[in-house]
Amino acid sequence: MRKRDLHILTSNIFTYTGDARFGVIHPEDSDDWNLRIEYVQKRDAGIYECQVNTEPKINMAVYLNAEGNAGFSGCETLCNSLLLFPAAQATIQGPEDVYVKKGSTISLTCTVNVHSTPPSSVLWYHGPSVVDFDSPRGGISLETEKTESGTTSKLLVTKASLVDSGNYTCVPSNANAASVWVHVLNGEHPAAMQHGEHGYSNRFAPSTWAVLACILCLLFSPVIR
């Protein structure tokens, strides 16, 4: 796949582009799958990604540097122009389950480890929808900082309400996404929550369980005469 335009160039032995310079080299009885670009041009420079649809998905991104003489052909020249690096990965700082009190501020910081070109954009999703910074709700802002070591995107949601609970996903333009679950508490205390998959709370306090245990003992204990 060409990351610049998310164009799937090849899959298996099939080619999905009208540009005849692209093709697949797959030696018989081997696990090698090579992308071939003939007559490489400067416009071919950029990130290409190989994906294996296993569970979990395996992917490897490469950067094609085509700043030399244009018009050369063959896989050997292409392969000598590749700089291998792991696919960039977004990370949201902190635990996977975030607890905030109603009326306080939700603060989520997403970092992207960039090995080549920084992401041109970082989108935030709340559930299936893109976070709308111009919504009538107000109080939603984004702070983005790009440095040599990577990109940081900080989402701030002030005066959190119960409807602000849910899944939040950071989606960079050229990196794998990251997600967290936000729980807005209406007077509950995070320490009293069970930190399960999505942090469901206990139904009974410890003192309640103690009272129930005493009642059961009285009901089932033998009568002493």
What do you see in this structure?
The chain is mainly β and 225 residues long. It has two domains: 10-85, Sandwich (Immunoglobulin-like), CATH 2.60.40.10; 90-207, Sandwich (Immunoglobulin-like). The chain contains two helices and 16 strands. The chain has a five-stranded mixed β-sheet with strand order 9-16-15-11-12, with no helix packed on it. The chain is elongated. Mean pLDDT is 75; it is low at 69-85 and 192-208.
N-C termini distance: 83 Å
Radius of gyration: 26 Å
Strand content: 35-45%
Total domain modules: 2
InterPro entries: Ig-like_dom, Ig-like_dom_sf, Ig-like_fold, Ig_sub, Ig_sub2, Zig-8
Protein name: Ig-like domain-containing protein
GO cellular component, one term: neuron projection membrane
Pfam families: Ig_3
Secondary-structure map:
Layout: E1 10-11, E2 14-15, E3 22-25, E4 34-37, E5 46-52, E6 58-64, H1 75-80, E7 82-85, E8 90-92, E9 97-101, E10 106-113, E11 122-126, E12 129-130, E13 140-147, E14 150-157, E15 166-172, E16 178-185, H2 206-220
